[in-house]
Amino acid sequence: MSFNTIIYEQDGGIGIVTLNRPRSMNALNNELIRELGAVLDEIAGDGTISAVIIRGHEKVFAAGADISELSRIQTPAQAHQFVTRVHLLFDRIENLPKPVIAAVSGLALGGGCELSMACDIRIAAENAVFGQPEIKIGVIPGGGGTQRLPRLVGLGRAKELLFTGDPVDAQEAWRIGLVSRVVPTASLGDEARKMATGFTARPALALQMIKMAVNTGINMDLRSALSHEARCFEWLFSTLDQKEGMRAFMEKRRPEFKGI
């Protein structure tokens, strides 16, 4: 499958998606949204892919939604159509049954920041900048920024970032919990691959269950979430990987997981 706005590569069991609209600073337009959705469908159905990396270029991850397209929206109904497409895409990333790493270098603003927050883990290059500047053009984040940001950094800090629209650098993003780690810009690709390669060595169904338990449980009360976790734990005892993992531990050898 060929794409105009993204590049898709496979490196072993890793699917690498590169946002590729350099002249538009990787702004999220309708074509890029469609193509990201299509490649996620491909990845979801590919049993050889165990982890995913989404990245941009050195100076920009994604600088937000494409304002040239947004400026043509004239009615709330048209705005609803656009934001629904974005929500469906970001929900697709959030619920993809494989770990998704955002490797962020340069600007991750507006929809670009929201895209990174839909991923499971964010690794930031030292030159990364995160922000939700929508208030400065008279709107609010529409791709989950008002909801995912507070869940990641806390209510008060999120409100400050949303109310001011001011960006934060990589170190501040790490300090407040928006990213998992900060690495030298030149090392970002290697660090993201190293993490993803570690995931490919883990039992795929157990990874899927962890992701589902966390994503679902965070929206439940604690008692319901613990019950959900227990059901996920119990189900894994029907898998061959569980039996192989425990057998390998007892035999003091490295397990050979098959994803079944």
List its salient traits:
260 residues; alpha/beta; 2-enoyl-CoA Hydratase, Chain A, domain 1; Lyase 2-enoyl-coa Hydratase, Chain  A, domain 2; six-stranded mixed sheet; four-stranded mixed sheet; 48% helix; Enoyl-CoA_hydra_C
How far from one another are the termini?
28 Å
Q: What is the helix/strand order? A: EEHEEHHEEHEEHHEHEHHHH
- Overall shape: it is globular
Helix content: 40-55%
Oligomeric nature of the chains: single chain
Rg over CA atoms, rounded to whole Å, is 19 Å
Tally of DSSP helical segments: 11
Any low-confidence stretches, pLDDT <50, length ≥5?
A: none
CATH superfamily of the largest domain: 2-enoyl-CoA Hydratase, Chain A, domain 1
Strand order of the largest sheet: 1-2-3-5-7-10
By CATH, the topology of the largest domain is 2-enoyl-CoA Hydratase, Chain A, domain 1
At CATH's second level, what is the architecture of the largest domain?
A: Alpha-Beta Complex
Biggest sheet descriptor: 6 strands, mixed
State the secondary-structure class: alpha/beta
Work out the count of structural domains: 2
Beta-strand segment tally: 10
**What does the average pLDDT come to?**
95
CATH hierarchy class name of the largest domain: Alpha Beta
Keywords: Lyase
Pfam family, one: ECH_1
GO molecular function: hydro-lyase activity
Family: Belongs to the enoyl-CoA hydratase/isomerase family.
Can you describe this structure?
By secondary structure, the protein is α/β, with parallel strands linked by helices. The protein has helices at residues 30-44, 67-70, 76-95, 111-118, 145-153, 155-164, 170-175, 188-200, 204-217, 222-235, 240-250; strands spanning 6-11, 14-19, 51-55, 60-62, 100-104, 107-109, 121-125, 129-131, 168-169, 181-183. The chain is built from eleven helices and ten strands. Strand 1 and strand 2 form a beta hairpin. Helix 1 (30-44) packs parallel to helix 3, helix 5 crosses helix 6 (155-164) and helix 9 (204-217) packs antiparallel against helix 10 (222-235). The radius of gyration is 19 Å and the shape is globular. It starts with 5 loop residues before the first strand and ends in a 10-residue tail after the last helix.
